[in-house]
Every structure is written in C-alpha cells, then in structure tokens.
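Incident review: delayed structure delivery

Summary: a single-chain prediction request sat in the queue longer than the usual turnaround. Root cause was a stuck worker, restarted by the on-call engineer. No data loss occurred. The affected request and its eventual output are reproduced below so the record is complete for anyone auditing the incident later.

Affected input:
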Amino acid sequence: MAKKAAYAGLTQLGAKVETAASPEVAVLERVPNPHPRTVYVARYTAPEFTCLCPVTGQPDFAHLVIDYVPDKWLIESKSLKLYLTSYRNHGGFHEGTTIDIAKKFIAVAKPKWLRIGGYWYPRGGVPIDVFFEHGKRPKDLVIPDQGVAPYRGRG
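Output delivered after worker restart:
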C-alpha cells in the first residue's frame, strides 16, 4: 500500500493525456527513487526531438541524451516524453532549448549530478552540439560516453 501512496500524485501515468501546448505548461513528474543510497547513472535518450526555430518557424531536430545520478527522486518517463513533445510547436534556439530542458529536469528531480548532450542536426550547413553539466561528477562510477557520433554529413 505504501507504494501506491507514493505514486498517488502522478497525473499522467496510466491516464490519457493531451500534449501540453508549450513547455511552460507541460508537467514533468517525479517518483521516489527506490535506491536513494545507491549511486548509479540513469539515462534518457530522445533521438527524434523536435522544436521550431524562433525566427523562421522551421523545424529543428536533435538527438538528446540526459544522464543523471538520482538522489531522492526519479523522473517519471511518460511525463518526460510528454514534456519533450511539448517542444514540438515551441520556438527556441538550440542552446536555450537544451539548457531549459536541463534546468526543468534539475528543478523537479534535484539529481546529485546531471549531464545533457543536445546533438542538433544541421540547418544552413552548421550542426550545433550543446553540452551542460550540473553538480559534482561522481567518482568511481561508470559514466558511459553518450554514444552520439559527431556530425559528418556524407562520407
């Protein structure tokens, strides 16, 4: 019964939920970490992230990788998917969008450590990769490479 009480505040998991109109109103939810004293890395990957250029309205595409060391909270994955989807019609530059996602994640989950890599596909011939790290990187912990190769175009 204690587990059900811990999840009672979730509004999206197990429910039919419409995508939020914008990231500002999207709800990112958390659940208790069942192993808060264990230091480990959790990874979320969004290889088909989309948003819009705030000037031209043209679509931008990125491969996002979020690594974090949880403390008391985990991000609930359905709410993360819905939060990221809320960017689909949102205008934002690559750098700002990547950092905004990291800051929201940090505000909700309060991780011991977080790293986000935003690997943006080229527009106008220029790929932009954005990296952000928060907190002290844990020692003696396997933190794998994010596994996204630098953009090479053809060849």
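Verification: The mean pLDDT is 93.
Action items: add queue-age alerting; document worker restart procedure.
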